[in-house]
Amino acid sequence: MRLRARLGALLLIGVLATGSALAWVAQDRFDHWQHRKLFPSCVGCHAGAAEAGAALWPQPANCADCHDAAIEDRVEWAPPAAPRASNLKFTHSGHAEEILRAKPDSALRCSSCHSEPGSDPMQVRVAVVRNCLDCHRIRAEHLEAPDSACVVCHVPLVQAVRLSRTDVSRFPAPPSHRAPDFWERAHGEQARVGSRGVAASCATCHARDFCMECHVNAPEVAAIQALQPDPRSLAHRTELRAPASHTDPTFLFGHGRPARKEAAECATCHTQESCLGCHEASPTVALAMHTAGPGRGPGARVERKRPQSHGIDFTDTHAEPASARPQSCGACHARTQCLDCHRPNAADPSPGYHPAGFLTTHPAAAYTRDQSCADCHNQSQFCADCHVSAGLGSTDGLRGSGYHDAKGEFLLNHGQAARQNLESCVSCHSERDCLSCHSAQGGRRFNPHGPGFDPETLRRKNPSMCTACHGATIPGD
Amino acid sequence: MNNLLRRGAWLSLALLGLGSGLAEAQGYRLRLDSRVQRVTYRGLTMDSIPVGEVVTGPTGGPRTPDNFAVRCPPGDSHCFFFRAGPELTGGPLVTTADLTLWGLGISGLSVRVNGRLGLDLDGDETWPGTQPEAQLVEAYAEYAHRQFTIRGGRQLLVHRLGITGFDGGRGIVRVGRSGVEVDGYVGLGLARATALTPTSPALDPLDEFQPQSRQILAGGALGYRGRLWEARVDYQREVDRDSRNFVSERTALSLNVRPTPRWSFAAGADYDLANTWFGNADAMLRYTAPWITVTGGVRQYRPHFDLWTIWGVFSPVPYHAAEGAVFVRPIGSLELRARGERYTYSDTETQTPLVDVDDDGWRLGFGASYSLGQNWRFDAGYREEYGPGASSHGFDAVVSWLPTTVLSITGYGSTLDRPLEFRFNEASVDVVGVDAEWSPTDQLRLAVGGARYRESRDRPDAAAFDWDQTRLHARVTLLLRSETDVFRLPPALRTRPRAGSR
Questions:
Q1: Nearest Cβ partner of B206 from A319, A326, A393?
Q2: Of B326, B44, B495, the residue nearest A358 (C-alpha)
Q3: Which among B363, B387, B492 has CB closest to A337?
Q4: Of B24, B228, B302, B479, which has the fewest CB atoms closer than 10 Å, so is most exposed?
Q5: What are phi and psi of A121, to 5 degrees?
């Protein structure tokens, strides 16, 4: 119950505070309608609106004639010390003089701008933008006005020196900026005017600094160079967005061709560094891009990632494409990266290919060769050397053949296992172990030749091999 | 002391060479990378016992009195068994210098050097790969023109037949703008998958047959690169310099087709002209859309052995596999994945009535990755494989946190069971680790990490042992460069998916 009462009190305090704030804000603006019978003429208080050099605002003492605490409550008000900060090129006196000079019989009144059409002149508003546009025969909505229309009322941002960065950040974004293709293509076309100019509509809100947030090629784009630098333009937040083409899953693989044909377009967002993030082994492809530096945007940050074609299993399946097209690998990979795996480093516990601890768990993978161990490991240097150190190497002939104790007569019936996993045998046994039984010149003279054995061709290619078992008398000679 | 002097001489020569090169070149990039790790491992030690001391175990088999299962070769006076080996500690420290020079006065001329200096801080060389101490991976000069490229020195060939190193010359001619490319090379070959020559003692830990001299490597390729497809045919032969016998002779075809932006097809095969059989071959169709990627394919795997070994005459048979994978991205930050493969070995044409060995197997895995904003990434998955020799199944999970753009902290954990088929060894491994990487500038990268392993190797005798260990590692990478190369160079994404897909 007490909690509910506290919540209620808090709610009441909140409502009262909000109401007071709203009332204070409302009091800050002069209620012309309330005073309409006292002031038949605008220039009675705002002389500066029609007369150059005169004050635009009334003196506080004029208010105090009535608001003296006796007739009316006292008010605390002072005229602004300076004109309100804006990017308008408009001045009341200048505007009035210009109109009278062009149209001496003009019926233009203060209410033409400061009242809604059809309303009482004393229902005063801050200048109604629609009235400005109508008077200047601009049919479009304010933020949709054609490029040439902006300069009618506005100065470029760099000339609106009294605007703070916060003021700039409050500029509304035109609807055109929300168009799907605005960031990728349309904004460039809209910004270009002539060969060295830039659209006034852009310059009204933006300066060169803003463009350089993205454009690596800022020094090469005439429209950007036509803008003056102004750090206040950074009040508009923007970031590089990848074009729609880049989201295509095949883009990574096929971007080389368009990059060569339209390098200048890529250079809009990409620096040499962003290309070399991947193309480290072939830096020439990046030469068409600009190097990051002063006056240019930082460029798109390219994360090095696997192309779709690689997939997560590519480490195991890259032999074919690497064999057929080694140059493609060279686009992104330096040879040293190949060597890290294909010439293993004895001091590396996990040279990048096998998972940690593979040494302990390798027998299952090695027996039936999920991958070819010999592509990266020298059989003698890597397998046999370690097996000898671990006591598995057959350095004492076949006397220790009791190692294969799970199969009681393994020595006599090892033929199938040997022909299926001969590389495993070789990792512990020397040729002499086998020749003790399989030589034609001694021992048990078991014939080791099996399916696929082509004695004629082998003898022709290397007769010395035959002599290891057959001596000088090679069958068929 | 001699070792120290030798290392100092190597380092001085390298620095002198680099210094004079840098002075001449207008552009250079030098990446110095030092990595060190402390790692322990524990294997087995063969032991023996006189036949007379062997006892009968609870299951009827022969054992030592302290319950080690033993094997007693017929006619031998001793029986043999394996005890747990001593804990071996390695401390490999490897510094890699990767240098590229250009702007040498002739447009298109560049020089590239990649070399390593390594040593084992533990001193007893228990860790493989640190011998010899200085290894030159690449060192060549290249002149690149729009129509051709020529290169001379120690270099690597990257093609379907593998990544092959050799000392020699290579020329590539591009036929106008047709996309046709002709490639040719000749030189003295290095051993496979290493920077060492095949005659290096470091490549003969088992005292196998080893060539007495380096082989002559020569080959060529014809390639076409188009907008929708590319293809390449390779031919390569290696010939022993003394006997003129072939060490290998192979040819390969690689094909990559992209009929539409979303569909691609990759295929290839290599053919061993000496053994007259196909080695590896595969074909894969891929569909990629923004929210899904689907792949499916078939492949054959058969190991390749040089002809100066006798392994090829043992007729290794290939396995044939059908595989498929799907990656779904229901929302941008989430990716779900699944992968499966089934394979079957060709008939080995052997009779092994006493030993039953599987001739087929399968692999599957599934997992998910999720990114929470720019700072967090989660990945977890399950994988399982079953096949001849060994099987495994287990979970992996990884959490990466990037509190700033220059710092990343990754925690990971996994649990795995991996029984072996040919040995009583039901091993289970649990791993927990943390890695941190800090790049205060784009020229400096520091990384440290550590992991705790808990491993249990269960057996029905005394040879079972538990083995827990802590592994530590650290890395410093420094990038030096001229002003013509001042761009930030992020690392490539080359990490295999931690879980699920494999």
A1: A393
A2: B495
A3: B492
A4: B228
A5: -60, -25
Phi/psi of residue B82, nearest 5 degrees = -115, 130
**Torsion region of A369: left, alpha or beta (phi above 0 gives left; psi -120 to 50 gives alpha):** left
* Best residue in A287, A336, A371 for a mutation probing chain B (most B CBs within 10 Å): A336
- Residue from the list B209, B388, B414 with its beta carbon closest to the beta carbon of A421: B388
**Three-state SS for A69?**
coil
Closest Cα partner for A453 from B494, B169, B312, B290?
A: B312
pLDDT tens digits, A297-317: 888 877 766 676 676 677 777
Going by C-alpha positions, the residue among A244, A300, A313 that lies closest to residue A269 is: A300
> How many CB atoms sit inside 10 A of residue A409's CB?
12
Task: Report pTM.
Answer: 0.72
Counting every residue, how long is chain A? 477
B53 close to B65: Cβ distance less than 8 angstroms: yes
Burial class (CB in 10 A: 0-12, 13-18, 19+), A117: exposed
A190 touches chain B (CB under 8 A): no
B327·A313 Cβ contact <8 A: yes
DSSP reduced 3-state for B439: strand
C-alpha span between B32 and B415 (Å, rounded): 35
Q: Is A248 exposed, middle or buried (0-12, 13-18, 19+ CB in 10 A)?
A: middle
**How many CA within 13 A on the CB side of residue A82?**
4
CA B227 and chain centroid, separation: 32
Give the integer Cα–Cα distance in Å for B202 and A432: 18
Distance CA B27, CA B97 (A): 16
Q: What is chain A's mean pLDDT, rounded? A: 81
Of A378, A416, A430, the CB nearest to B203: A378
Q: How many CA atoms lie within 13 A of A201 on its CB side?
A: 21
Give the closest-approach CA distance of B463 to chain A in angstroms: 11
**Are residues A320 and B256, on separate chains, in Cβ contact within 8 Å?**
yes
In three-state secondary structure terms, A233 is helix
Contacts of A279 in chain B (CB under 8 A): none
Query: Could you report the per-residue pLDDT of A270-298, keeping only the tens digit for each?
Result: 888 778 777 765 666 677 788 877 888 88
Read off the tokens for A7: 């919540």
Q: What token pair was written down for B166?
A: 């050799």
> Amino acid identity of A97?
E
Q: Mutation test of the interface with chain B: which of A429, A447, A462, choosing the one with the most B Cβ atoms within 10 A? A: A462
Average pLDDT rounded to a whole number, residues B245-259: 94
pLDDT in tens, A131-172: 888 888 888 888 888 877 888 888 999 999 999 999 999 998
How far, in Å, CA of B330 to CA of B290, rounded? 9
How many Å lie between the alpha carbon of B187 and the closest alpha carbon of chain A? Answer: 20
Assess contact for B192 and A374: CB atoms under 8 A.
yes
As a whole number, mean pLDDT of residues A448-463 equals 94
CA angle (B66 as vertex; B455, B56 as ends), nearest 5: 115
